[in-house]
Amino acid sequence: MGNRILVVDDAAFMRMMIKDILTKNGFEVVGEATDGVQAVEKYQELKPDLVTLDITMPEMDGIEALKQIRKIDPQAKVI
Hints:
Elements: E1 4-8, H1 12-24, E2 28-33, H2 36-46, E3 50-53, H3 62-72
Parallel strand pairs: 1-2, 1-3
């Protein structure tokens, strides 16, 4: 697995904390999204190796975003 990560969370503080932990451990955060709609768009645009995905978000929740991402890429790695 590569180290290009998309961080998805509607809480700015959580995105900052996750990004900080990942970058300190050698991972590259290639993008951030604040809701499921942005997550799907960013996934298509950035093609990250891994997505950290919050469940409770506005516009589109994490479960629906996961379904959409898996339609684009059935092999997508999402936590």
